[in-house]
């Protein structure tokens, strides 16, 4: 038996079966119903007046930074429904290196990252000032509210182990 034949014969079988979703730890809608209803109201208030495509880009980027699979799945689907292009969704982790995000989107994404990673240098003046140049005070306030809301949803999803529904190929 050759080395390659031995390696092939002893290798574990490869499976294309899906990995089961993690078991959800707790259901906040059931166990903290009043809080959960308040989060839904907060979310509705946070997106009021924000361009729907920009809102989804912000939600996706915060969810990428936080690693929330449930929110990533939800908001990439929602972004597509709003007409967002696949290449922009795929390149969000490298938005600084791409030419297809507007100045307002770039400012919103930079602010999203700064607020999401608030312990990493807080929100630098340069990031805040750039957003303040491109958004009026009301828009900026709504953008900040949106970023805070999605970060809260990410923490709910991650802590309770919400998992996206399996997809069919």
Question: Would you kindly provide a written description of the structure presented here, covering whatever features stand out?
Answer:
The protein has 9 helices and no strands. It starts with a helix and ends in a 9-residue tail after the last helix. It has 169 residues and is an all-alpha fold. α3 runs antiparallel to α9, α4 (52-66) packs across α9 (137-160) and α7 packs antiparallel against α8.
List the helices and strands and how they pair.
Blueprint: H1 3-10, H2 28-31, H3 33-47, H4 52-66, H5 69-81, H6 86-90, H7 103-116, H8 125-134, H9 137-160
Quick description:
It contains 9 helices and no strands. By secondary structure, the protein is mainly α.
Percent of sequence in beta strands: under 5%
> Overall 3D geometry?
globular
State the low-pLDDT regions, or none. Answer: none
Quaternary: single chain
* Count of individual beta strands: 0
How far do the termini sit from each other?
Answer: 39 Å
Count of helical stretches: 9
Helix content: 55-70%
Q: Give the radius of gyration.
A: 20 Å
Compute the average pLDDT.
92
Question: Which structural category fits the helices and strands?
Answer: mainly alpha
What are the secondary-structure elements, in order, as H or E? HHHHHHHHH
Question: Major beta sheet, specifics?
Answer: none
């Amino acid at each position: 038996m050759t080395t390659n034949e031995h390696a092939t014969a002893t290798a574990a079988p490869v499976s294309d079966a899906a990995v089961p979703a993690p078991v959800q730890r707790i259901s906040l809608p059931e166990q903290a119903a009043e809080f959960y209803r308040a989060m839904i109201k907060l979310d509705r208030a946070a997106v009021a007046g924000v361009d729907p495509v920009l809102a989804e880009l912000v939600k996706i980027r915060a969810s990428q930074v936080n690693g929330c699979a449930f929110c990533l799945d939800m908001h990439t689907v929602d972004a597509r429904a709003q007409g967002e292009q696949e290449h922009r969704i795929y390149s969000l982790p490298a938005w600084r290196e791409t030419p297809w995000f507007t100045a307002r989107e770039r400012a919103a994404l930079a602010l999203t990252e700064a607020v999401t990673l608030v312990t990493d240098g807080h929100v630098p003046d340069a990031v805040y000032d750039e957003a303040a140049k491109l958004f009026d005070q009301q828009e900026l306030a709504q953008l900040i509210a949106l970023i805070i809301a999605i970060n809260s949803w990410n923490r709910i999803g991650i802590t309770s182990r919400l998992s996206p529904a399996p997809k069919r190929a």
